[in-house]
Amino acid sequence: MPTERVPDPAMVIPAAGSALTALTAAVAGAGLDGRLLALSHLRASQINGCGPGVADGAARARHHGATTNQVDAVAAWRETPWFSDEERAALALTEAATRLADRPDPVPDAVWDVAAKHFDQKELAVLLLSIAVTNAVNRLDVPTRQQAGNP
């Protein structure tokens, strides 16, 4: 019989949960479009196989005005017409920054340069912080087998 997993580590260590919440709030309040951040969150969570992250990302994307087509097809954003050039740049950066170990040059200049054409320095910082927070939370949820829909 497998050993029982710990509950959400951010709940076990409340100060860590508070820090993640504060960082999430800082990113959300930094002025980048909430729809774009939610689509990025959704895509990173899909890559990481994080059920709660996918459910949260989809709900947040809808809340911020993403279309049904965008939410349904974000995993195939390259092959669909439903994303702007800015969204495509953010999703490419999200994928590269999430899959750091998958290639020798994890965030190639081509990906960075396209993102830098659409986002200024502060917006890139916000996007990277958002991607980092998503990946951190995914990396807490997946090993502890957190389920979508649990409080």
Give an overview of the whole structure.
Keywords: Membrane, Transmembrane, Transmembrane helix. The chain crosses the membrane at residues 12-32. This is Alkyl hydroperoxide reductase AhpD. The structure is a single chain. The protein has one domain: AhpD-like. The chain has 151 residues and is mainly alpha-helical. It is 65% helix and 0% strand.
**Main sheet: strands, sense, barrel:** none
| CATH superfamily label | AhpD-like
Q: Write down the overall geometry.
A: globular
CATH architecture: Up-down Bundle
What is the CATH topology descriptor?
A: AhpD-like
The total domain count is 1
Helix fraction, binned, reads 55-70%
Query: Mean pLDDT across all residues, rounded?
Result: 95
Beta content:
under 5%
Text of the CATH class: Mainly Alpha
Terminal CA distance reads 26 Å
Low-confidence stretches: none
Report the total helices: 8
Total number of beta strands: 0
> Which structural class do you get from the secondary structure elements?
mainly alpha
Q: SSE order, as H and E?
A: HHHHHHHH
In angstroms, what is the radius of gyration? 15 Å
